[in-house]
Write a structure and sequence with these properties.
This protein has 411 residues and is α/β, with parallel strands linked by helices. It is built from 14 helices and eleven strands. It is elongated and about 105 Å long.
């Protein structure tokens, strides 16, 4: 009954102390071996927690160890870790908050000790350590015999059978391993790279001096003929070469079109295309719209984006500038697109696709299948427009930046 007395003493607030050899615990007037069984049963098993498991749980609670740290230290000290589903109840009992818990089984421990005492009288005396090992083995065999078929196991049954082998912290503890050879290899490679860099720098300097000498010689020998010959003409540079292109649907019924796209993307304010068309009926629809915004790379600078809804007039070099398209859902929207992109799926691999739609309307069946960025917008709540536009620019700028090594666009 020493394990019962120890658990009751702990529940009354008596503090345990370890002996010098770390093999016994002093609780009040009791001095018990650390593996003395307490009447607190392991979850789903016939065995009981040893005394050091209960005391270690109290120490871990005082130190405020996290679950991973608790398991790691329990493994390091070869202590049975208390099941996570039992911790709260056991701690409540030890603090005196409750008088009993479902896993507290004093009668079961008494029966176990009586059975062990009878076995000791029949077969001779055994050492305390050997007796406890035999008890655990017998209980394990009895539990295996009474275990439910695997087909009837619940989640709790599976969790009770789990054995923690290692954690993300314990796998990093490799005391017998040395990483010194890796460090030596790293420093050796670093020194070789520095040597190559120095040789390369000296070679570039020699090449540069030689190149300057050759240029000076050519300049002096050809000065007269160069003065007589007319200067070559490089031709006018295309002002739209680095301007990204955005394509919107041509239908006036689309949520975004040539009538309302400038107000939306430049100022973050949504107005229906039909309303804007009626408001500016005399002006008509512009074939190309320019939108100005802060640069993605340098907010102090302003860059341009161009918007069109008719792709039939685009040249081959213009398609390199196409970065985004607002898809309405109709497949015919892409009828005039290049044949190298035979379907919307291929188009959306090369162009960032968006679908602006009202948040209270069902999506087009094609949109549900296409890989587009959906931007829901309200019909009446205008305070949310700017957030939608900011999402659009954030997605588009990151899409362009990831591919800009080849496109070389101004964003």
């Amino acid at each position: 009954m020493s394990g019962v007395s120890a658990l009751l003493a702990l529940a009354k607030g008596q503090r345990p102390t370890w002996t010098a050899d770390k093999q016994h615990l002093q609780i009040g007037a009791l001095t018990l071996h650390r593996k003395t069984l307490t009447p607190y049963r392991l979850k789903g098993k016939s065995d009981f927690y040893p005394l050091d498991a209960v005391v270690f749980l109290l120490e871990a609670e005082e130190k405020k160890l996290k679950p991973a740290q608790y398991l790691t230290e329990a493994i390091a000290q070869k202590i049975t870790a208390v099941n996570a589903t039992q911790k709260a109840a056991l701690l409540s009992y030890l603090r005196g908050e409750v008088s009993s818990t479902p896993d507290l089984d004093i009668a079961g421990l008494e029966a176990l000790e009586s059975q062990a005492a009878g076995g000791a009288q029949a077969g001779g005396e055994e050492s305390k350590e050997g007796e406890q090992a035999g008890k655990r083995q017998r209980l394990s065999e009895e539990g295996a015999a009474l275990r439910k078929p695997v087909s009837q196991w619940t989640v709790d049954d599976v969790l009770c059978e789990e054995q923690l082998l290692s954690t993300h912290l314990s796998v990093l503890q490799v005391p017998k391993k040395s990483f010194t050879p890796l460090l030596e290899l790293y420093h050796k490679a670093l020194g070789a790279d520095k040597g190559k860099s120095k040789e390369g720098r000296e070679g570039r300097e020699r090449d540069s001096k030689s190149s300057r000498s050759d240029k000076d010689a050519r300049r002096s020998s050809g000065a007269a003929s160069a003065a007589a010959a007319p200067a070559p003409s490089s031709g006018p540079r295309d002002p739209n070469a680095g301007v990204p292109l955005i394509i919107v649907p041509s239908a006036v019924s689309s949520v975004v079109n040539m009538y309302n796209v400038k107000q939306l993307l430049e100022n973050g304010i949504f107005e229906s295309g039909e309303f804007v068309r009626m408001k500016s009926a005399a002006a008509g629809k512009e074939p190309l719209i320019t939108i100005s915004k802060a640069s993605f790379y340098d907010p102090a600078k302003t860059v341009r984006f161009q918007v069109i809804d008719d792709v039939s007039k685009l040249k081959e070099e213009d398609w390199r500038r196409v970065v985004a398209v607002f898809a309405s859902g109709a497949a015919w929207q892409f009828a005039d697109w290049p044949k190298r992109w035979p379907n919307p799926a291929a188009i959306f691999e090369n162009v960032c696709a968006f679908h602006l739609h009202f948040d209270d309307e069902a999506l087009h069946p094609n949109i549900l299948q296409w890989r587009t960025h959906r931007l829901p917008i309200s019909k009446s709540k205008r305070h949310g427009d700017r957030s939608v536009v900011l999402d659009f620019w954030h997605i588009l700028n990151e899409f362009i930046a990831a591919r800009n090594a080849t496109k070389k666009l101004n964003i």
